[in-house]
Amino acid sequence: MSSIRIFILSALSERGPMHGHHLRLLSEEEHLDQWTDITTGGLYGAIKRLAAEGLIEEARTEKVGSYPARKVWRITEAGARALSSLKISALREIVFRPDPFDLAITRLDPDRLDDLESVVAARLGSLRAMLTDYEAHMRTIAGYLSPAETLAMRHHVVRLQAEITWHQELVARLPQLTQDEKARRTPHDHGQEAS
């Protein structure tokens, strides 16, 4: 599921034709990089892909003053159908991306087990800092958010809190994990044959 496609198609559907710069300003105004996976830098590439797929089309070209000419985009009928489908899919689909950390914790380096506690503590500290920063940012922009945007940002807070809770459990179980890893290691595991 692509949030950036929903954003561009929705903006053109709701606000009418716009050029890429207007879309960029709108994404910044809505602080999309703070509560979605949309990056400002990805907008222009997404516009090109949507145009290539026939979901948006050039409405006209605008030239203002000494600025370069800009293509103004509008949504096509195919784009409107795709937008409707994308919105329904996004509401139904549950997205939990696998974290490479989970695989790494199951394949610990036996020579680095003593580093594990500090690595996990640093990770937990980073998550706590992210939560603190995010909540402060939410308070700063609260007056500019719609009820739906507030709930979307709250969803991110709840996910961060869940990550912190899980990492706290991990910290409590680290002695058990490292002891288990050491017990499972045999001379054969290090490439040494028993005599």
Report the count of strand segments.
3
SS class: mainly alpha
Radius of gyration: 24 Å
Approximately how much helix is present in the residues? 55-70%
* Largest sheet properties: 3 strands, antiparallel
Average pLDDT figure: 90
Tell me the span between the first and last alpha carbons.
56 Å
Strand content: 5-15%
Task: Give a structural overview.
The protein has 195 residues and is mainly α. It folds into two domains: 3-92, Orthogonal Bundle (Arc Repressor Mutant, subunit A), CATH 1.10.10.10; 100-190. Helix content is 63%, strand content 8%. The chain has eight helices and three strands. The chain has helices spanning 3-15, 20-29, 32-35, 43-52, 77-92, 100-105, 116-141, 147-184; strands spanning 18-19, 56-62, 70-75. Strands 1-3-2 form a three-stranded antiparallel sheet. Strand 2 (56-62) and strand 3 form a beta hairpin. Helix 1 packs across helix 5 (77-92) and helix 7 (116-141) packs antiparallel against helix 8 (147-184). The longest helix has 38 residues, at 147-184. The protein is elongated. The mean pLDDT is 90.
Looking at this protein, list some descriptive labels.
195 residues, mainly alpha, Arc Repressor Mutant, subunit A, 2 domains, 3-stranded antiparallel β-sheet, 8 helices, 3 strands, elongated
Short précis:
This protein is mainly alpha-helical and 195 residues long.
Break the fold down into its secondary structure elements and pairings.
Layout: H1 3-15, E1 18-19, H2 20-29, H3 32-35, H4 43-52, E2 56-62, E3 70-75, H5 77-92, H6 100-105, H7 116-141, H8 147-184
